[in-house]
Amino acid sequence: xxxxxxxxxxxxxxxxxxxxxxxxxxxxxxxxxxxxxxxxxxxxxxxxxxxxxxxxxxxxxxxxxxxxxxxxxxxxxxxxxxxxxxxxxxxxxxxxxxxxxxxxxxxxxxxxxxxxxxxxxxxxxxxxxxxxxxxxxxxxxxxxxxxxxxxxxxxxxxxxxxxxxxxxxxxxxxxxxxxx
Length: 180
Prior knowledge:
By secondary structure, the chain is α/β, with parallel strands linked by helices. It is 38% helix and 16% strand.
């Protein structure tokens, strides 16, 4: 019987990309020692959609590593209102971590990622094009230590709120428990 070829390591499991703040700070420090540029972006990512995926891929192209901050459940409710999030933070984070373009994910409980940005000191801060430059949390800090702030292209018409509204309309039209 011929020898088996060596096993190729597969992709890292998504759960292995979920980090605490302290672990993320360590990962960022190690990346910097290797000369890698770290990109940070954040959001609620309530229902992952095409706009999120394209933004995350574009953010990853701005550097060597992409770290995504995810708003915790109470934070999303404060920002988006009652009934949100639809998907719990841990699940949202793991789905994001499963994307090839994402290196690390950190859930944060605050309404903004400012404390996380200040701790991690990313080289690049990337936000969706729906954010005005002045409104990007952490912009002043990142630019202050010589980093870049980039507004990413928006995918017109693709929004979590619109998806939820459409789902509600379809559910109402089909009635509870009925299938199309």
